Amino acid sequence: MSEQQPASDGLLAGLVKMLAAFGAVAAANAGRRAGATLLGYLFVAGLFVVSLCFLTAAGYRGLTNVVDESVASLIVGCAYLVAGLVLALVLQLRRR
Question: Where are the domains of the chain?
Answer without folding.
Answer: 7-95
